[in-house]
Amino acid sequence: MRRFLFALLLSVVCALAQKPKDVRLAAKPGASAIPVVAQYLNSTEPDTRAEAVRQLIQIGGKDTIDPLLRATSDPDAEVQIRATDGLVNYYLPGYVKQGLASTISRAGSVVRTKFSDTNSQTIDAFVIVRPDVITAVGKVASGGISMDSRANGCRATGILRGQAALDDLVAALKTKDNRVMYESLIAMQKIRDASAGPRVAHLVRDLDDKVQGAAIETVGLLRAKEALPALRGIISSPRNKNAERAAVSAVALMPEAGDGKILEGYVGVKDERLRASAAEGLGRINKAELKPLIEKIWKEDDKMQPRLAAAFGLVLNGETATTDEAPLRYLVNTLNSVSYRDVAVAYLMEAALDQKVAKALFGPLEQGMKDEKIQLSRVLGASNEADAVPVLEKTSRESDAEVAQEGLRALRSLRARLKI
To answer: Where are any strands of DSSP class E within 152-235?
Structure first.
């Protein structure tokens, strides 16, 4: 009876109070006010419902997840967007300050937003997301109330690594809205489910340059060899320089032996990005007769990007020494460079999937400088090398707090991947 009366009282209060300021007042007690604030999601006023979502996010905690899930089905775009960002924020604290919801402005019934092209965030591999959260953001991606909310749903799905919502991301492509399609493709890149590759291969010839570029990147990262004939066609007759660069890069990510001829043609071109892609691809083919081409770039090129790519290519071809002038040492040293650190990390992560390379990095991790230790922890945390566990355990006990924190995060990620 008491529960019934309490629920009735809440309904009456929310029916009488329809203003955002009433929601803010109700939320002041904090976590204990979550049931009261959640009732405002039943308001007939979009502003009031949006404020309820804001207050739930500000209160935070696991008890806000269920009302936020309800709010993702709201008929108002602002409420959907805020609720989606709120769910991401629970798993990635601080996200609401930079997510789409932070850019919302409303003019009557019109909701305006401004997407940022900065979209590199993902949760750590060891973070477990409730399945119903993935289902909810996936539904927003494929059927949100506005194209902005759908694009935001795609972005959320990628950040949360929502593999179970892959069908929703594919459905989002059918909107033919360029922003939604772009965000869907970037989400697929983050999830890294290879089964998505063939489902987006047709988009490598999309008429929108940004969508085409994202599609080419996606099939490359997902190693969708079904797209290779189309990519070779783009290389032979590119729409523009960006399309050519993207296509060469994608082929370089999954080259077949016959692609050596294509890549060889880019070893001496003026464009340093194309030279870098050539070195990467030739390295991945891993044929002794192609190694001199990689060595040519390594020894003669005066640009950082091609030299890093050549170092990577030589490491893939078995050069795992960590002496001062060795290619692997060059990649490790670059971890101290703010400008090229991310490139070096990406190369090392791929190379460290090879057991010999992973083990060769144990020494540099234990003996390296602070930035090297932080980045190498990330590299080994993304590997499949069980022998890296005791090395990362040691790093997690370093006296430097930042190094120790990254070592612990990497250790948890590796254990989650290896299920140990």
So the answer is: none
Give the C-alpha separation, 154 to 141, whole Å.
Answer: 5
Answer for the pair 310, 294: CB distance below 8 angstroms, yes or no: yes
Instruction: Please tell me the predicted confidence (pLDDT) of residue 381.
Output: 96
Closest Cα to residue 171, out of 143, 136, 148? 143
- Record the tokens describing residue 69, joined without a space: 């899930």
Contact 58, 88 (CB under 8 A): no
d(CA 135, CA 93): 20
Q: What is the pLDDT of residue 352?
A: 97
Q: Which residues of 72-110 are buried (b: 16+ CB within 10 A; e: fewer)?
A: bebebbbbbbbbbbbbbbbbbeebbeebbbeebeeeeee
Task: Give 17: exposed, middle or buried? Use CB within 10 Å, 0-12, 13-18, 19+.
Answer: middle
Q: Look at residue 16 in the predicted model and tell me its pLDDT.
A: 45
Name the residue ranges covered by the structural domains of the chain.
1-71
Cβ atoms within 10 Å, residue 232: 16
Q: Which one-letter amino acid corresponds to residue 296? A: K
Q: What is the model's pTM?
A: 0.88
Which residue pairs from 384-388 have beta carbons closer than 8 angstroms and sit at least 24 positions apart in sequence?
384/353, 384/358, 384/417, 384/418, 385/352, 385/355, 385/358, 385/359, 385/414, 386/418, 386/420, 387/358, 387/359, 387/362, 388/358, 388/362, 388/414
The rounded distance, in Å, linking the Cα atoms of 228 and 409 is 37
Task: Measure the CA–CA gap between 24 and 42, rounded to whole angstroms.
Answer: 16
pLDDT tens by residue, 88-141? 999 999 999 988 888 888 766 667 777 777 678 999 988 999 999 999 999 999
DSSP helix/strand/coil, 354: coil
Model pLDDT, residue 109: 61
Pure H helices in 17-130: 20-26, 34-39, 46-59, 65-71, 77-91
CA distance 83 to 360: 45
Q: Which residues of the chain have pLDDT under 70?
A: 1-18, 107-110, 118
Q: For residue 217, count other CB atoms closer than 10 A to its CB.
A: 19
Cβ(360)–Cβ(328) below 8 Å = yes
